[in-house]
Structure formats: C-alpha cells, structure tokens
Request: fold
Amino acid sequence: MKKQIKTGLYAITSSVFSGGRSVCEMAEQMLEGGIRTIQYREKSKPYEEQLKEAKELRSLTLAYDAVFIVNDNANLALEANADGLHIGQDDISAREVRRLIGGDMLLGLSTHSINQIEKAVKEDIDYIGVGPVFATPTKPDYVPVGLDLVKYAAANVKIPFVAIGGIKLDNLEEILKAGAKHICMLSEITAAPDIIDLIKRANKIIAENNPTLKVVINGKSAELPLKTTIVDYLKSKNINPAGVVVEINRSIVDKDKYGDIFFNSGDAVEIITFMAGG
Reply:
C-alpha cells in the first residue's frame, strides 16, 4: 500500500550544509531524532554515487519505518525502491511522471503560488510543497511567498502540504500558526552541530502549538491532532479507507463522509477491517 508523508518535520538531505558529515550519517541522526519523512536531494553528485547513497537511505528508513522520498529523478526513485518522488515546476509534467512511477509511489510537487496550487491539486498528486516561505540560501533565485500562501493552503488544500523555505526555530511558531502540519527545515537541520538536539527543540515547539484531543479507538486510548478526519487517521496508519467500516459512538459512518468528518474529544471509535473472501 502507498505510504503517506508523516505529520511534523520533513527532512531533506544536503551535503552542502553537512559540515563534512556523510548523507547517511545525517539521515541516521534525523531518524534517531524522530523524523519519519526524509527526502534525498543530492543532484550535483554522479548518478552512481546518488544510487549508492539512496539505497543506503532506503535501508535506514525501512529500519525506522520512515517514508523515503527521492528528489526529481524517477529512475533513481525506482532503482532505490523509494516510497515517493518529489518534482518541481520545471520538471516534466506530473501526469507523465505518474505514468513512469506507477500508482503505488507517492508523488509530491513544489508550488510557489495560488495558481500553481490550484493546478497541482487537480493532478494525481499526493502532497505539495509550499514555498519558499522565507528567503533561503537553497533557493536564492526564488522570491519568498510569505505566510499568506501557507494560510491559503491550510484553508483550501485537502491533500497534505509541506511548508518549506527559510524555516528555522525562531520562525517555526509562525509557520504552525499559519496552519502548516508538515514542515521542512532544510539547512536548519543539516547544518546543526547536533541534529538530534535541534530536532527535539523543533518538536517541542510543534507540540506546544498543536493541541490534541483524546479518543478511544478499538478500546485503546489515542491522542490525535485537532482537526483530524477519519481519512487522516486511516492514512497515518497506512489503512485503506475502502477496506474498513468506521463506527463513531455506535453510529456507522458513510464511507463518502470519511474525508469530511472530524474526530471530537471523547469519541468512541471502532474500525473494522474486512477482507474479501470466496
């Protein structure tokens, strides 16, 4: 089943800011710190070196049950058995990329304007990047889109979006208050002398700005972010919504409503998986 990007921090590798650390060393520290979505982005390296590193990252991310995404290169993503591919506005069309990678691989697309967001959500895309929110050395030729575009995405986009670009500890709270639930801090993480500590500090800010609600799911207590829909929860657990029946407070929910109904604090939820038989 297709994985989904994890809520919270979304990491991207960068040898430029690594301070001499290897890509795998950085990635392992990211994973030990708790990050569960990592994108491999080392476009200036020879293909064989990229493939070697991507395969090593694939093994690492599997060990941590993390999502592994490759930037730009569909062949590299396929050869490394990545969970997903991320492309930009200047790459080949999303439709053509989807044809190349098939339906089981995640596909992300960078967006920099309302118009690009509106076009992206009409494609077979699993998530979008929104940015650069602030000025960033990784995209020096791009004009920052500001918090308004993050707020627009939060209010209008139903698929996940990743806020990216110039995000640091001292402006992370602004990003969260604008509505972002997936945040990429590229140079802030990769350049940190202590990556694990930086991630812990970032996650503390995220936790303080994301109040939760408590529900009971299949008899077990669970703590979920506010504004979690049934689909959000099922996808976070890699459960196919089409293969389950959901009951909230003893009432069966219409499958067509899974994306519209939010959990409320105190809900008693039963999720029943059924399998076709013969």
